[in-house]
Amino acid sequence: MRQQYRAEGLAEDDLAATPVAQFARWFRQAATEGRLFEPNAMIVATADAEGRPSSRTVLLKHFDEQGFVFYTNYDSRKARDLAANPYVSLLFPWHPMARQVIITGVARRTGRDETAAYFRTRPHGSQLGAWASAQSSVVARADLDAAYADLAARYPEGEQVPVPPHWGGFRVAPRTVEFWQGRENRLHDRLRYVAQPDGSWRVERLAP
Ligand SMILES: Cc1cc2nc3c(=O)[nH]c(=O)nc-3n(C[C@H](O)[C@H](O)[C@H](O)COP(=O)(O)O)c2cc1C
């Protein structure tokens, strides 16, 4: 890791034209060279209407110039926070590469067609799990297992599971994206793209 801290800086001239294109480069490296267990795991921080923060890990399932998409339960704590306050922060902790990416932006629900298309790609057991769990509510393990067993009996393997109405995606449209590269002597590189009103991006360097 020390070698990596020394070898790989991040200069303004190295950056792609958009933060999503730059993210795609780093994500590819994280997936292939990063020795990371789940490079698409990211920490989603939300705040409720009173400004009280909470955070949790979720999996990034899709990204493009429109934003970064994850799927969850729309009755969960995070989703209730986002209904009251759509401002969100995403953090990719790519520690083995001495890198992190921090995105801030605004979260909106994905359309039902997009959600349904993704739901169909999930394993049968995960589809049942989305129905069985009232995410973020207090539950007894026995009740959770019983709910799953009921659903597994109703929808055996091979039978199509309907998309739960309380389940779907959020797309985070980025407003700022910071690329952090660890360097020697704590003189890290921090380059942040900031969205401009005309749709272009300004890049600024932050002190480490
Ligand atoms: C590696 C990892 C990946 C996860 N991926 C997801 C995910 O994609 N969607 C999700 O709703 N929860 C995911 N979870 C569970 C969340 O961290 C969290 O427990 C759950 O979403 C409830 O959060 P909330 O009560 O703050 O809303 C994941 C957890 C871990 C550790």
Strand-residue proportion: 25-35%
Tell me which ligands are bound: flavin mononucleotide
Overall geometry comes to elongated
Alpha-carbon distance between the two ends: 18 Å
Rg to the nearest angstrom?
A: 19 Å
Based on the coordinates given, report the CATH architecture: Roll
Provide a short characterization of the protein structure.
By secondary structure, the protein is an alpha+beta fold.
Structure keywords:
6 helices; Pyridox_Oxase_CS; Pyridox_Oxase; EC 1.4.3.5; single chain; pyridoxamine phosphate oxidase activity; 9-stranded antiparallel sheet; Pnp Oxidase, Chain A; alpha+beta; flavoprotein; binds flavin mononucleotide; 208 residues
Could you explain how this protein is built, in words?
The protein is an alpha+beta fold. It has a single domain, classed as Electron Transport, Fmn-binding Protein, Chain A (Pnp Oxidase, Chain A, Roll), CATH 2.30.110.10. Helix content is 30%, strand content 34%. It contains six helices and nine strands. It has helices spanning 2-7, 19-33, 77-84, 112-121, 124-132, 141-154, and strands at residues 41-47, 53-59, 62-64, 67-73, 87-94, 99-109, 167-181, 189-195, 201-205. Strands 1, 2, 3, 4, 5, 6, 7, 8 and 9 form a nine-stranded antiparallel beta sheet that branches. Strand 1 and strand 2 form a beta hairpin. Helix 5 packs across helix 6. The radius of gyration is 19 Å and the shape is elongated. The two termini are 18 Å apart. The model has no long low-confidence stretch (mean pLDDT 95). Flavin mononucleotide is lined by residues 38, 41, 54, 56-59, 70-73, 76-78, 135-136.
